[in-house]
Amino acid sequence: MSTMPGSESAAPRTTGLRAMEHDELLEAAELIEQLAESSTRGQWQRRGLLATRPEIVARRADGSTEHVAEARAGSVRWISTLSPAIAPALAGWLRSAACQDGQLDPNALSLARELLGR
Asked: Is 7's pLDDT higher than 70?
């Protein structure tokens, strides 16, 4: 079954190369979480243009907003790490999860719904 790194349903740790791959997946999951923690909080939304550039605003749960560009220092690593370069691997994981016989990965479905809801 395909699982999102760091999820409750991740496969148990094994030995040898498999253990190294397991550790690599967990490290990548932790990196994503760390980057999200240090980035601009909230639901990012496009709001037209700010001067000649697209305006991206983070809307927080309390209703407040912050321009992502104004918080650039906190968001730069998130943006550069989650660049289009990861799209093939991420799309491949979603496709792999969709092809599992009878085993739907809830993490893959959650990610797909987040992406499609944008």
From this structure: no
Q: How far apart are CA 75 and CA 38, in angstroms?
A: 7
| CA geometry: angle 99, 104, 105, nearest 5 deg | 105
pLDDT at 104: 82
Structure tokens at 47: 């709001």
Name the DSSP class of 115: H
> Hey, where are the domains in the chain?
12-81, 83-118
> CA 13 to CA 19: how far, in whole Å?
6
Q: At 106, phi and psi to the nearest 5? A: -65, -30
